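FAQ: What does the model actually see?

It sees only this:
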Amino acid sequence: LSSKRGLITSTTIREGVSVIEAEVPLAAMFDYANELRSMTQGKGTFSMEFAKYSQVPRNIQEEVVARRKAEKEEKLALAN
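And it is asked to produce this:
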């Protein structure tokens, strides 16, 4: 989770099962179900719930804006 810009808030063991609670940006969670299954031989599960809105780090903001500009330019080029 830390590789996904996540912040682990707690770890516990309940009934022999490790429970990890963390805050992770939604954009970083795409395909996490497959990654977790792979890491746990299909035994791991996860759930998500909204916690808060947070500002995106500057470097990621720049990537998102650049990607959106490129998409917009491509769309305009196809329209002409």
